[in-house]
User: Which sequence fits this backbone?
C-alpha cells in the first residue's frame, strides 16, 4: 500500500513561499507605505429650465494622507496598519478633518504550513460564489475620466482582481503529491457582514471554502462552498437568514500546436431560506457555465466561447452584490430647479462620488439602473439568464494595436409576468492603438482608445402587454499623448444614449417580484474632457482637467442640464 | 472561414435551444394590462355578525385583474372605522376577514354598518351593509370601562377651578360601549386639575388580579383629545405594594408612570408592556423608588391625574376602557 500510493511527499504553504521569499528580499522590520492626494473640483451648473434657487457654482475637494505602517516582527509575520487623515477644503483648525483606521491586518505563516490573515482581507473565489463585479459604464472609459474612477475604486477597496474587502479571517494551505495528483489546495474564509443591534438584527457572517485539486497540467477539479447566515441568539430576533451556495469547477488544459486550449466549467446550486420565520419562502437556484478558450500567442489571437444558465432563483450574495447603490442621491447639486427636485444619479456622479458605492455584501438583489446595464446588472451571476457569450481578442505584431470584441446572446430562463422571456443582445468592440510604436519616439506615451457597446433588451408583445424594447449605446474615445518629457495631454469623450421601454420588477424583502413598474427612457449623457498631466515618477503625478457633462432627458425637462468641471489632482503612492 | 461559420451556427443553435420555464415570476402582466371589470361583486359572508361569540365575517369580490383596493366599514352609530387594503384580483378570507377590530377608534358596538369597496383608478364604488349583533369581547382585566357608571370603590380629588367636570358621560362619543369619563376644567394656580384613584379594593381584593410576569402583561387605555385643546397632560401612576403590608408607602415603594400628551384630535389607544413602564419624577425618567422590580401582582392602586400648565387655561380629555391584557397589547 505504502509503495503503491506513496502519496504525500510534502506539505507546503502555497502562498507562503512567495511571502517568505518576499521577506527575504526586504529585511527591514518596519516599512512605511501609503498614499497622498490633493483633489479640487470647481463646478458650474447650467440649466435649461429657470432656476433662481440652486447656487450654480460649487467648489469642493480634499487633501488626504493614507499613512500605513508595515511591521515584520519576524520572518513569518506581517502586521499592517493604516490611518487616513482627511481634510475637506474649507476645513481649518479641526473642522472638516477626519481620522479613520483604513486598514488593519495581521498575516503570516503558521508552522511553515498554513498561510493566514486576520483583520481586513481582500478575498475572491469563483464568479458565482464570491466576486466583486465592476461597476457599470465607467470602468473602461478614457484615461482622462478613469483618473477619477480609480480614486473611487481605491477609496472603496475595489481591487482589479474583483475581490471583496471584508473583515474577518482567511487561511490557505496546500498538499503536494508524488503520484496521481500534483497538488491539493485549500482556501477558507470567514467574515462578518453585519453586526447585531442586540434588538432585532442578528450578527450576519459570510463563510466559505475552496478546495482545488490539480491532477496534472491537463486537469483541475475544484469545489467552492460559501454561505451567508445569521447567528441565532445574537439578538432577540429568533428568525435567521441562510443562503448557502455550492459549486464545482472543472478546468481542462491542452496545447495543440500553437494553440493553448482551455475548457472551464462551473456548475452549482444555491438555497435561500429563513429559519423560524413563518411565511418566508425557500428558493433553490442552479447555475451551469461552460467556456472554451483558445489562445495563439504567436498570432496574438485569443477566442473564448461559452454557454451559461443561471436560474431565476439563484441567489449568491457574494457574487451578485452590486458596487453602485442606486438609492444614493448625488451630493453635488443634489437638488435643482426652482422646485428643488432631486437630481438623478448619472455616470458623471458615478465617476467622482465615493459615497455612491457599496462596500458590504447584500442579501437582497440591489436596485439596478436598466439604462446603464439591463443585461448583466449583477455581473456574471446575474440571475434569470441563459445563452451564449463569445469573446475574441487580437494583438497585432509589435503590439501596435489591440482589438477585442464581445457578443452576448442571452435570454431569461423564466419570464417575468409572462411566459415570454426577454432577450438580451450585447455587442461590444474595444480597440487601443499604441501609436508611439509607429509614430514618434518609442519610449513616449501615445495611446488612442475607442470603445463601442450596443445593448438591447426585447420581448414580444402579448395581448395588451406592450413589447419591451430598450437599447443603450455607449461610445467612448480617448487619447493620451506625451508631448514633452513626462508631460501628457489627455483627451476623452464618452456618450451614453438610451431609449426604450421595459417593465422593471419590484421585489419584496425576500427578493421576490410582487409588481412591475413601467420604465420609459429617452436620453443622453455626454462627457468630454481635456487635461494635462505631469508625471513626477511612476508613483506620483499632477493633473489639471477641464470637462463638460451634458444630461438630456426627453421625459423630464428638470433633468436637462450641464455641469462644467475644473479638476486639479495631485496623487502619490509611497 | 468554414470553422467560423460552424461556430456561429453552433452558437445560434445553443441560443435558440434555451429552454424557458413553463411558469413565470411575479403577477401576470396580461392581467395588469387587461381591461378592468368586476367578475364577482362585493359580498359579505355573515351580514349579522356577533363578534362577542367569536364570529367573524368575510368580504369577497373578484376582478379581472389585480388592482389596489380598499374596503371601509363604518359604524353608523359609533363612527368607528375598519379598513382592509390590498393589491390582488380577488378579495377573500385571506385578505378581508373581519373579527370585530377597529382601524380608527372608537370601537364598534352593536350597530348597523355601511360597507364600501373602492378601487384605485376606478370611479365606481361598491356598497353594502351589515349588522354587528354583538361587539368584540377582549380578554383581560378591565379596570374601568364606565359602562356600569362610577365604581363606588374609586375616589377623586378635583380642584375648585373654573368649569370643572369630572364625571361619567353617557352618549355616542365613547371609545367603547356607551359611556366614558370626562376630565375637564381650568386651574390657574396648579398643574393638577383633578385625579381619580382606583385602588385594588374597588375590585374586591387588596391587589389588582394580575399575573406576576411583567413581560407578558400590557397596560392599555384610551384617551380623547378634543379639537382645539392642546394643553392637557394625563399621568397614569401605578403603585406597587413592594413589602405587601397592604398599603402603598410613597417614597419607599415603586410607582411606575405613563405620561401622555395627545397631539391628534380624537380617540387614541395607549398601550405599554408593563416591564417597560418607567419611574417618572416630574415627567422625566428616574431611578426606581422601591425595590425596582416590576411586580404587577402587587399593584395596589392606579391613579389617573389630569394636568395642564396653569397659565394655559381650560383643558379637557376623556378616558375610556382601561384594561390589562396578557400576551399582547390590546388590538381594539
Assistant:
Amino acid at each position: 500500500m505504502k509503495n503503491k500510493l506513496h502519496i504525500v511527499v510534502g506539505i507546503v504553504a502555497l502562498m507562503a513561499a512567495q511571502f517568505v521569499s518576499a521577506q527575504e528580499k526586504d529585511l527591514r522590520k518596519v516599512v512605511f507605505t501609503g498614499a497622498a492626494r490633493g483633489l479640487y473640483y470647481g463646478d458650474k451648473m447650467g440649466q435649461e429650465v429657470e432656476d433662481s434657487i440652486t447656487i450654480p457654482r460649487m467648489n469642493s475637494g480634499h487633501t488626504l494622507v493614507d499613512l500605513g505602517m508595515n511591521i515584520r516582527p519576524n520572518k513569518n509575520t506581517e502586521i499592517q496598519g493604516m490611518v487616513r487623515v482627511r481634510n475637506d477644503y474649507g476645513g481649518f483648525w479641526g473642522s472638516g478633518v477626519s481620522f479613520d483606521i483604513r486598514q488593519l491586518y495581521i498575516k503570516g505563516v503558521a508552522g511553515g504550513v498554513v498561510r493566514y490573515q486576520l483583520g481586513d482581507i481582500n478575498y475572491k473565489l469563483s464568479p458565482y460564489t464570491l466576486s466583486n463585479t465592476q461597476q457599470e459604464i465607467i470602468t473602461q472609459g478614457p484615461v482622462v475620466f478613469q483618473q477619477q474612477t480609480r480614486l473611487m475604486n481605491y477609496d472603496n477597496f475595489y481591487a482589479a482582481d474583483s475581490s471583496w474587502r471584508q473583515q474577518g479571517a482567511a487561511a490557505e494551505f496546500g498538499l503536494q503529491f508524488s503520484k496521481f495528483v500534483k497538488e491539493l489546495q485549500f482556501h477558507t474564509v470567514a467574515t462578518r457582514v453585519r453586526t447585531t443591534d442586540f434588538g432585532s438584527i442578528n450578527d450576519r457572517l459570510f463563510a466559505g471554502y475552496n478546495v482545488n485539486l490539480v491532477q496534472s497540467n491537463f486537469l483541475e477539479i475544484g469545489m467552492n462552498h460559501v454561505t451567508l447566515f445569521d447567528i441565532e441568539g445574537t439578538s432577540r430576533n429568533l428568525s435567521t437568514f441562510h443562503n448557502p451556495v455550492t459549486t464545482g469547477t472543472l478546468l481542462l488544459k491542452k496545447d495543440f500546436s500553437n494553440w493553448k486550449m482551455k475548457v472551464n466549467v462551473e456548475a452549482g446550486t444555491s438555497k435561500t431560506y429563513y429559519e423560524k420565520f413563518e411565511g418566508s419562502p425557500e428558493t433553490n437556484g442552479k447555475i451551469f457555465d461552460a467556456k472554451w478558450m483558445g489562445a495563439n500567442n504567436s498570432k496574438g489571437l485569443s477566442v473564448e466561447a461559452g454557454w451559461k444558465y443561471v436560474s431565476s432563483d439563484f441567489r449568491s450574495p457574494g457574487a451578485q452584490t452590486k458596487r453602485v447603490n442606486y438609492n444614493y442621491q448625488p451630493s453635488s447639486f443634489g437638488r435643482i430647479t426652482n422646485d428643488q427636485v432631486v437630481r438623478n444619479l448619472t455616470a458623471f456622479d458615478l465617476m467622482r462620488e465615493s459615497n455612491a458605492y457599496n462596500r458590504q455584501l447584500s442579501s437582497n438583489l440591489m436596485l439596478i439602473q436598466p439604462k446603464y446595464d439591463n443585461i448583466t446588472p449583477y455581473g456574471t451571476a446575474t440571475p434569470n439568464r441563459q445563452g451564449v457569450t463569445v469573446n475574441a481578442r487580437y494583438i497585432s505584431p509589435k503590439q501596435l494595436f489591440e482589438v477585442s470584441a464581445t457578443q452576448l446572446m442571452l435570454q431569461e430562463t423564466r419570464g417575468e409576468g409572462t411566459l415570454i422571456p426577454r432577450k438580451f443582445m450585447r455587442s461590444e468592440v474595444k480597440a487601443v492603438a499604441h501609436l508611439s510604436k509607429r509614430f514618434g519616439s518609442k519610449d513616449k506615451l501615445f495611446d488612442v482608445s475607442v470603445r463601442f457597446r450596443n445593448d438591447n433588451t426585447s420581448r414580444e408583445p402579448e395581448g395588451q402587454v406592450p413589447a419591451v424594447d430598450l437599447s443603450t449605446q455607449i461610445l467612448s474615445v480617448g487619447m493620451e499623448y506625451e508631448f514633452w518629457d513626462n508631460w501628457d495631454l489627455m483627451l476623452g469623450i464618452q456618450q451614453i444614449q438610451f431609449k426604450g421601454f421595459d417593465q422593471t420588477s419590484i421585489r419584496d424583502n425576500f427578493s421576490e417580484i410582487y409588481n412591475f413598474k413601467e420604465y420609459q427612457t429617452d436620453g443622453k449623457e455626454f462627457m468630454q474632457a481635456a487635461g494635462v498631466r505631469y508625471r513626477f515618477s511612476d508613483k506620483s503625478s499632477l493633473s489639471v482637467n477641464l470637462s463638460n457633462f451634458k444630461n438630456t432627458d426627453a421625459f423630464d425637462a428638470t433633468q436637462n442640464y450641464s455641469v462644467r468641471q475644473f479638476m486639479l489632482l495631485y496623487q502619490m503612492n509611497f | 472561414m468554414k470553422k467560423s461559420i460552424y461556430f456561429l451556427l453552433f452558437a445560434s443553435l445553443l441560443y435558440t435551444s434555451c429552454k424557458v420555464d413553463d411558469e413565470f415570476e411575479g403577477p401576470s402582466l396580461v392581467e395588469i394590462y387587461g381591461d378592468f371589470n368586476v367578475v364577482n361583486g362585493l359580498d359579505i359572508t355573515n351580514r349579522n355578525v356577533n363578534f362577542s361569540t367569536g364570529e367573524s365575517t368575510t368580504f369577497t369580490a373578484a376582478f379581472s385583474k389585480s388592482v389596489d383596493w380598499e374596503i371601509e366599514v363604518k359604524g353608523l352609530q359609533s363612527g368607528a372605522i375598519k379598513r382592509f387594503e390590498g393589491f390582488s384580483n380577488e378579495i377573500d378570507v385571506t385578505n378581508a376577514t373581519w373579527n370585530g377590530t377597529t382601524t380608527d377608534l372608537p370601537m364598534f358596538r352593536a350597530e348597523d354598518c355601511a360597507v364600501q369597496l373602492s378601487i384605485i383608478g376606478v370611479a365606481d364604488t361598491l356598497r353594502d351593509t351589515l349588522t354587528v349583533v354583538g361587539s368584540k369581547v377582549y380578554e383581560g382585566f378591565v379596570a374601568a370601562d364606565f359602562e356600569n357608571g362610577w365604581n363606588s370603590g374609586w375616589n377623586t380629588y378635583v380642584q375648585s377651578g373654573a368649569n370643572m367636570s369630572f364625571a361619567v358621560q353617557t352618549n355616542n362619543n365613547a371609545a367603547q360601549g356607551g359611556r366614558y369619563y370626562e376630565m375637564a376644567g381650568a386651574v390657574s394656580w396648579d398643574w393638577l386639575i383633578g385625579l381619580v384613584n382606583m385602588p385594588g379594593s374597588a375590585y374586591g381584593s387588596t391587589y389588582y388580579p394580575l399575573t406576576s410576569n411583567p413581560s407578558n402583561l400590557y397596560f392599555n387605555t384610551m384617551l380623547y383629545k378634543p379639537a382645539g385643546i392642546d394643553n392637557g397632560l394625563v399621568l397614569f401612576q401605578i403603585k406597587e405594594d413592594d413589602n405587601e403590608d397592604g398599603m402603598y408607602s410613597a417614597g419607599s415603594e415603586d410607582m411606575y408612570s405613563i405620561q401622555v400628551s395627545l397631539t391628534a384630535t380624537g380617540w387614541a389607544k395607549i398601550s405599554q408592556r408593563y416591564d417597560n413602564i418607567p419611574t417618572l419624577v416630574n415627567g422625566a425618567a428616574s431611578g426606581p423608588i422601591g425595590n425596582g422590580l416590576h411586580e404587577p401582582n402587587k399593584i395596589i392602586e392606579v391613579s389617573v391625574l389630569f394636568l395642564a400648565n396653569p397659565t394655559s387655561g381650560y383643558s379637557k380629555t376623556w378616558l375610556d376602557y382601561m384594561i390589562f391584557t396578557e400576551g399582547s397589547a390590546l388590538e381594539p
Q: What stands out?
A: Chain A has one domain: 2-573. Chain A touches chain B at residues 305, 307, 309, 312, 384, 386-388, 390, 409, 411-419, 421, 462-466, 503, 505, 512-516 (CB under 8 Å). Residues 253 and 262 of chain A are 4 Å apart (CA to CA).
